[in-house]
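Q: I'm writing a short explainer about Palmitoyltransferase for a general audience and would like to include a description of its predicted shape. Could you first generate the structure from this sequence?
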Amino acid sequence: MASLRCRRDFCGVICLILTYFSVFYADYVVIQYVLIPAYADSVWGTLHGSLFNLVLLLLLACHSKAVFSDPGMVPLPDTALDFSDLRSQSSRMNERGCEGWTVCSRCETYRPPRAHHCRVCQRCIRRMDHHCPW
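A: Of course. Here's the predicted structure. Afterward I'll give you a sentence or two in plain language.
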């Protein structure tokens, strides 16, 4: 699923490559121009370099997991639903009995609270905070 999403979002792939390139370049600069000149003959240089790279590795692992994990798509119905009577009523409670659920005007399906429609995937996404770079 992640490879399909990457093929459709060329700008997201470019942003991901630029992000990782910038992080690795910053790691090179910190080690080459800060730690080595300041701690050339000390054990502290090795300790600081190891801890910095450990934190960097953990940050990259968390970022990679957020980028490539499934954001939780709301399943689309098999048939088109008629929402003409639902839009005229209060959107606080729908016929499913769930508070906060609304109807998405683009994909015409029930949308849980805090879900948003993604224009790249053409689906409603539950956790939009890490799904798209925009």
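A: For your explainer, you could say: Strands lie at 102-103, 110-111, 116-118, 123-125.
Q: Perfect, that's easy to follow.
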